[in-house]
Amino acid sequence: MQRIPHDEAELFEVGDEVTGRFRCASCDLLVVSPQENDGVLVLPTCPLCASEEWRRVG
Ligand SMILES: [Zn+2]
After folding, report:
1. What is the Å distance from ligand 1's center to 45 Cα?
2. Which residues in the chain come in under a pLDDT of 70?
């Protein structure tokens, strides 16, 4: 399994309130903050691999 080095991008964790697009640090699953509710997304545990780390896309 490929592991993305932690020092290449800013990492966010479960419970962080974020806006924008994020990918799971382990499996690359994409999550996008909603248009409603001021566009704030509270980062979840990854539903695919249970990782607790996310990195911003773009
Ligand atoms: Zn994942």
Report:
1. 8
2. 1-9
